[in-house]
Amino acid sequence: MVVLKRAVFVAVVAMLAACKPDLGSRESQITGPRLLAMRATPAEAAQGDPVTYDALVVDPTGEIQPSIDYAYCKLRKPLDDPDTVDFGCLAASGDGIVEIGSGTSVGGTMPTDACRNFGPDVPSPQPGQPPGRPIDPDPTGGYYQPLRLLFGSEIDVGESRISCGVAGASLADSATFRAQYHLNENPSVLDVSSDLAGSLSDDPTAPTTLAPGAYVTLTASWPTCPTSDTCGDGVCGADESETSCPSDCTNPVGCAGAERYVLYDPLGHQIVIARETMSAAWFVTTGSLDSDGTGRDGTDLTTSTSDGLTLPTTAGPVHGWVVLQDDRGGVGWRRFEIAVGP
Fold first, then answer.
1. Which of 40, 244, 268, 283 has its CA 20 to 30 A from that of 337?
2. Among 71, 77, 87, 93, which Cα is nearest to 126's?
3. Residue 38 and residue 120: Cα distance in Å, rounded?
4. Looking at residue 281, what is its pLDDT?
5. What pLDDT, on a 0 to 100 scale, did the predictor assign at position 315?
6. Interior CA angle at 54 toward 94 and 96, to 5°?
7. In this predicted structure, what is the pLDDT of residue 25?
8. What does the H/E/C string look like for the chain?
9. Beta bridge partner(s), residue 32
């Protein structure tokens, strides 16, 4: 299964999959080969820009490196269809499936018609359907290009955020938005620590040893992003533009935590500044997690989130992962390795 880039992480596993879910197991439990997440780098790209895609694939023995077949899906679902993407995106091949390449990591180019198919531009007419209208943005103002991922016999769908600008704004607001909106940055998991042993190893050959049956609180942390912008701090923030702060914004660098960003409010007809929600999905091969997903909303300045893990009572390895996602489609992850023993 693959984490949809736009999914809400209360069930970071709000995803489409060709196979039926195993209702007898939790999403956080790794019982077989699983595609946990897909990442686009950069996290947001304009039409025609290069993008690299990679994925986190695991099984009960740890991380694995299978070849994944990536493709763009150009099928636009009817607007009255409640599904996230057109069901045809779950096909191995066919009309609307544009192959990117195969491997553990592949390079693609954001389609030049992405904003017309999945964004604010007026779409091309579809055979047998009434005239189309632009896609509504998500709550962060974002639009997403679907991707089809083929992994063995499993077909999944991921999403790559498209930089399409803003629709419905005045000329002045559109100009402000273009100047102050900066492409999203993927989040980074700086550390996974425990209350019993501090930072947990991410090296399967040198795991952190903990006692059988122990209850441990796991904490994943991410970088602290500025809550206000200072020219020269190295981050091109929501209050800055290339004109107001060329040192930070001529070659914009974002922040790998909860970023501030500009958003057009269509109800208030104004540009506002928002802050990203950060959500974490937790996975282990053995043991039992308290929650499949945790996180922080945009008003919470805490730069970490925690989950509880009850370790197995028998000796052996516990392979674990935390997948971090911001609500603008950015994704990052980190593994942690525990040896249950005396």
1. 40
2. 77
3. 24
4. 98
5. 96
6. 15
7. 73
8. CCECCCCCHHHCCCCCECCCCCCCCCCCECCCCEEEEEEEECCEEECCCEEEEEEEEEECCEECCCCEEEEEECCCCCCCCCCCCCHHHHCCCCCCEEEEEEECEEEEECCCCHHHHHCCCCCCCCCCCCCCCCCCCCCCCCEEEEEEEEECCEEEEEEEEEECCCCCCCHHHHHHHHHHCCCCCCCCCCEEEECCCEECCCCCCCCEEECCCCEEEEEEECCCCCCCCCCCCCCCCCCCCCCCCHHHHCCCCCCCCCCEEEEEECCCCEEEEEECCEEEEEEECCCEECCCEEEECCCCCCCEEEEEEECCCCCEEEEEEEEEEECCCCEEEEEEEEEECC
9. none
pLDDT of residue 23: 47
Distance CA 323, CA 281 (A): 5
Contact between 168 and 200 under an 8 Å Cβ cutoff? The reply is no
Per-residue confidence (pLDDT) for residue 94, from 0 to 100: 87
pTM: 0.89
CA dist 86 and 196 (Å) reads 46
The span from the CA of 41 to the CA of 151, in Å, is 20
Mean pLDDT by runs of 10 across the 342 residues of the chain is: 34 33 74 95 97 97 95 81 72 90 95 94 75 85 95 90 92 92 97 97 97 98 95 92 93 94 92 96 98 97 98 97 97 98 88
